[in-house]
Structure formats: C-alpha cells, structure tokens
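Typical record was shown:
=====
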Amino acid sequence: MAEVRFYFDFSSPYGYLAAERMDEFESRVGVKVLWRPFMIGAAFKQTGQTPLLDQPIRGPYFRHDMERCARAQNTPFCIPDKFPYAALMPTRAFYWLESQSPALARKFAKDIYRGYFADGLDMSNPEHVLAAATRHSINASEMRVAVEQDRWKSHTRDITAEAIEMGAFGSPFFFYEGEPFFGNDRLDQLEQWIKLHKAQTDG
C-alpha cells in the first residue's frame, strides 16, 4: 500500500499542529503515514533559513498565524520560553521506540509535542523527555542509554540526510508517491491529491 512520509521536527509548531491531525487523516484517507522526525537545523544550514519567529517582519505574522491555526483546529498551543531547541534526544528516542513498537513511538511523539507546545515544558531537558516515556510505561533507564548509542545517533543523521535529499526544507513536509507537500495547511491538498491518484490508479 502506498504511504505518506511525514517529516517533522519536534521543535516545529506547524509540525505539532499536523501531528495532532495525523491519526484522523490516516483513517479518513486510508493510507499509512510513516512518521519521520528529523533535525531541521541541518536543512536550515543548507538553505540559509532561520527560525520563523526570528525573522524580521515575518516573525510576528507567523506567531499570530500559529495561534490562529491552533484555535481553528481546537488544539492547545503556546510558544515555549525556550524556542526553538535541538530535539536530538526525543528524535533518537523515537527511532529506538519505533524499532520495538511503531504505535508506541507515535504516542510518545505526540506526548513530546504536547508537552512542549501545549504545556510549555523545556523538552531539551532530558528529564522531561524521560517523564513522557514513563507516562507510557516505557523504561526510562533504557531510553536514557539508548539515546547515547551510536546506532540511534547514526540513524537520526541518516533520516535527516534522507529528508534533505528528498527535498524537505521545513516542517512538516509530506511525500506521497514522490509528490511533495510542505506545511500543515497543505494536508487538505494532500488528501485531494491522494484521492485523485487512487481514482486514476483504480480506473
């Protein structure tokens, strides 16, 4: 079955808003969504971008837009005091978890996002990441060890390189059958594209 690749960074507000819509989207559209957190800072280095809220003129608009989009989809939202952050630990932890249970990795990812953008927690603090793991009966001690293992460090670098090679320059970024869509506001368009593609294939 064709799948949607969902690339996102854990410090991305629009990535958070998309993640909150993803389960319903997957169920409604009838496609598998492959969650792929990556390190957006590496993409920014190649494109010369800076975080949205740091950009002159654009920053205030995007802060307003993030809040507006969150209200529109009835999603709790705040800009944390420490924003953005390099989400190395939750990203590595996600892939360690995914190797055992993709469903559990998704739940953990949503918890990390909500902790940061709904509760304003500093998710660069390892203890907050481990607390999210504990809420899902994940062994925090094992996670603490895993995120320092070369396997998950390397895997995170590989996924980041994969995302950039495919053309992901921001978060969230979606790919379906090679077709790219950037932004939470492109989910509806992505859904239309998938339905059209399915109709053409079935026809």
